[in-house]
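Discrete fold record:
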Amino acid sequence: MISGATSLGSRPTSSCNRLIQRFGAARDSTVRLLQPPRPHAQKPMRETSGHARQLITCCSLSSFLGLLDNFPDWTIAHPSALTMREIEHWATRAREFWGLGESPISNLLRVAENNGAIVIRDYLDAETLDALSEWLEPEGVPFVVLNADKESAVRSRMDLAHELGHIVLHRGVRTEDLNKKVLFKQIEQQAFRFAGALLLPERPFLRDLHSLSLDALRALKSKWGVAIGAMIHRIADLGVLSEDQEKRLWINYNRRGWRRREPLDDQLAFEMPSLLPQAFQILIDQGHDREQIPGSIGHGRSQIEQVANLPENFLMPSISVQAKIIPFKKA
């Protein structure tokens, strides 16, 4: 848990509350399963990448659980015409839409899940890949994979904020656009700018910044849940630093060895997914047979347990598993 951060703004209904209402609405003691998942035109799993397997499984899970998203459906300019000032505006709008105000976000992953995104932590196939995201269609559910190899909780939070930027800003981007190097670089820069604005809104963050020093930024790290290096980028983006000031900050940052590991990285806890584990626990509590769930979803037990962050053997028949399910808190 990140210290010094306020609780999330209120929302009428979280994703988990919707699941409880949906499953709890059944009149008999056994909850009626939702419609079976639609088939996906994909290659066999053994011929696909780890990402593709995750995507196929999450598509099936979202169909099976009937997940709905609460992400804004705004008309946003094409990345080639989108300015950084407009991105600041959309990040502010996203905070307003999700009821976050201007305070530090205590748990960004919970914000994503409370608004209907499927977020998982898993080992990605590429060493240089920190995270990835897609829209599950036609379900209309955002899907984010965070690299489980990440060693810093705050950098993982920034990865998630970056992917939320893609989800909000770039839903209409075509695959062929991503193959254009200049445009792809522009899209990545836009997602980073959105992430900085989402986690560090300009006015309250600058009010907290009493000096342009590494020690001042270090003092804000636990409150805002953002890496010192990311804060340097943010104040540079906001035009607070001169070119010489920014250069000196980075020189001192590297001299302290913070490029590889920053202070507090070993103290701040990772935010863990809880929507899918809680959804499966609801199914079990409502009387579903663990053994039948994988067949209803259409995927193997171990693959579902891995993607849904369930304890090993959670879906094994006639086995009592002490599930370490994180309570899904209201926003």
Q: What stands out?
A: DSSP finds 14 helices and three strands in the chain. The first strand starts at residue 118 and ends at 122.
